[in-house]
Amino acid sequence: MKDLRRLLRHLAPYKKFVGLNILFNILMALFTVVSIPVFIPFFRILFGMEAPVSVRPDGVNSIGDAVDMANYTFSKIVAEQGPSRALLLTCFVLVAMFFLKNLFRYLSMYFIAPVRNGIVRDIRQEIFDRMTVLPLGYFSEERKGDLMSRIVADVQEIEWSILNVLEAVFRSPVIISGALFLMIYMSPGLTLVIFILMIFSGVIIGGISSRLRRQSGELQDILGILVSTVEETLGGLRVIKAFRAERFQQGLFRKVNESYRDTQTKIIRRRDLSSPLSEFLGIGVISILLWFGSQRIFAGELGAEAFMAFLLAFYNVIEPSKSLTNAFYNIQKGLAAVDRVDKILDVPGGMPECPDPKSILEIQEGLRFENVSFTYPNADIPALNGIDFFLPKGKTVALVGLSGAGKSTIADLIPRFYDVTEGRITIDGIDIRDAKLNDIRGLLGIVTQEAILFHESVYNNITFGLEASEAEVFKSARLAHAAEFIDQLPEGYDFNIGDRGGKLSGGQRQRLTIARALLRNPQLLILDEATSALDSESERLVQEALDVLLADRTALVIAHRLSTIRRADEILVLRDGAIVERGSHDDLIAKKGEYSKLVALQGLG
Ligand code: ADP
User: Fold this and answer.
1) Among the four 80, 134, 315, 478, which has the fewest Cβ within 10 Å?
2) Phi first, then psi: what are they for 247, rounded to 5°?
3) Exposure string (b/e) for 548-561, b if CB count within 10 Å is 16 or more?
4) pLDDT digits (tens, 9 = 90+) for 427-469
5) Does domain 366-601 have CATH number 1.20.200.10?
6) 62-66 — which CB contacts under 8 Å span 24+ positions?
7) Fold match between 2-345 and 366-601?
8) Is the CB of 403 under 6 A from ligand 1?
9) Would you say 62 and 103 are in contact if contact means Cβ atoms under 8 Å apart?
């Protein structure tokens, strides 16, 4: 029940439409039921058994009276205008009733359309918004493709199951109970027989659908893996081609794709079994019903016309019962989808903030790492061990070390992508965990190795959500030596740089991200220098742009260029998550230790 409430909570903003849908659903159901007895006089005349009711009932106080009244009116018409005219009239009444029934049916769907699409929009937006605020750690645990399949496939599933709930709760029961009421009124004995038979077939069909439920859960999971594989492959096409791993990737995809096919085939075969089976069971039930019914008619306990109407009522019970069972099955599937979606929505967003966070709008003194150790949530050994350093305002600290030494990890701790395991990081003496996360991130500008660029115009890639005047954007581009190449582009600042900036050269991408950082003019810059080698002309331009960016700026640099390292006020040499040497370039070279080996090894300079 609690689960169902979670599903239905998405309906809340659409109360008005849902109300109208329910109203028309009920009206439709009523007209379905009421149109059944209209057939009775028709059969009567056809079977030549109309028995005139000549006494007009005094009033209409019960169903019985209503039936008598209808019979009376009908006999009068037959007597006055002849059976043909009476039949014609019945036909008109039938047409009118079915017209109304279907009109209401359409109206009910008309009002649910904005609801189903609205729900899909709401949940998608909610998941997407969530994804942007979730802590980074979350994404190293979850497959991206699985998240994608949730935002596409599971949301669709939820839409379906909500529709089914509406139908199951408000339409089918009205039709079923109305038709059952008529059936009991016409022949309680036969209704009992049917009831038993229906329970029997229900159990058989229910057995099929329960297996189906589990298999569709499996199917959604496989779909998640499938989308993940596509996502990873598209993201790594360059590497895949370079390593000639196309066949390997194709093989991976083939395996998932085949397992999707196999599961889907099983599901479809099982699902397709339900229709022939229920038709077969149905004809079984009808035969038994015909047998019992005709016995009653021969015994004079039941009129043939009432029996026909009874069959009609029964026919009207079948469809809604089917949709009721279907709804039951689909709701289960929908709840599984709600679970998958809620797993994302329930993850605490961002990093936990302390109850009374302090505001830091400007850096006065500097950034300090105090004996910081850090272990990744899924790792056994710490990535950082007792890191201690001070970055004073306006100075530059460079981190150097072999790959895997822990440089990026240090950088990731400052914006609180992760929180330290031990020790603390302070800005002006305030632990960053006690400060407003928004303030901390507002102080920072990050320029990363893999220039993070989006499939957007040059202009938007520079502003990147920041409110800035055109003049400021142009100025930053000029200072970053990006203006030169932007002016050469076909559409200048409106040029779309392609997926991840694929239409630009490596040096151009770097200068674009430097322009972005300059525009932000961050109080604390975290620069993760690109390792990729550039030709000497590009290198010179990037170097000059970096000089502008770093001038008098408080900066932590993961440095690969000797020129950048040289201008740093302090160099920290890292190995296995610990600082093994520190000092200026000249001091460290003179020491002939780790740093000088590194310089020789990496050809720094
Ligand atoms: P560097 O930037 O110096 O190349 P990193 O800071 O990326 O080094 O990595 C430091 C250590 O932390 C490495 O041993 C690496 O395997 C590990 N590491 C990095 N990211 C993660 C992660 N998301 N989960 C677990 N371990 C990680």
Assistant:
1) 80
2) -65, -40
3) ebbeebbbbbbbbb
4) 999 999 999 888 888 898 888 756 667 778 888 888 888 888 8
5) no
6) 63/185
7) no
8) yes
9) no
